[in-house]
Amino acid sequence: TLDLSNNGLGYKGSILGGSNIGPAIQLLLSRSESLISLNLSRNRLSDRDGRYIAEALKTNTILSHLNLEKNELGVLFGPDMAAALQENRDLKTLLLGWNRLESSGTSSLLSEMRTSSTIETVDLSWTGVTDEGAKMLAEMISGSQLLKSVVLSHNAITGEGLKLMSKPIAASKSITHFDISHNNIGGKAARAFLVDMHDNWTVEVLDLRSIKAGAEIQPDMKSYIKHRGSKGQPLTVHFGDSTTNM
Description:
The protein is of the alpha/beta class. The protein contains eight helices and ten strands. The protein has helices at 21-31, 47-57, 77-87, 102-113, 131-143, 159-171, 187-196, 218-229, and strands at 2-3, 37-39, 65-67, 93-95, 121-123, 149-151, 177-179, 205-207, 236-239, 242-245. The chain has a ten-stranded mixed sheet, with no helix packed on it. The protein is elongated. It starts with a strand and ends with a strand. The model has no long low-confidence stretch (mean pLDDT 92).
């Protein structure tokens, strides 16, 4: 495990990084025979740096956990990472939250991720995921038996996007954590989602904070929580200003 977070490696004036950090990370990933987890969050890494990382992942068969959260990766990183995932089938955790991938970047990435059979944890919070991306995620969820955690907070997903993911999530036997908080999801879609979730006994953490739906879904929320409680299954639900633990 190597934690290089919060070092400003992508900053041009950085002693440790600057314009040479991308090639340096590529060299590290290309030569390492034991590095399983790499944390590069909060380093102001750019699309240029991301391209070097993506190139290294095409041949790296050791790394399983990659944290690139809160950098300056943008639209161009999406297709570069997608190309890497075409060849890499060893990465299990991919954390990309709080980067500027925008709709086109996330769509390029998710187009490839929907066929990935190895990803277990994905964080795409605040990256610009839209309903188009939600459709691809629905395909990814349906086709994966390993996916455990999906974080999509602070994006541009509407009720239509949740509707596309609802039944695949409910049918999943692997997902234990689903976060759709801070998205533009209304009451109708939220209620339908909770009804679908009555058939799911796998999800243990459900985050619906700060969605458009409000008090109107409280009866459906209580019904869902009561239903899960009837079997004594562990469940934590975040909604509004409250958290319910079972």
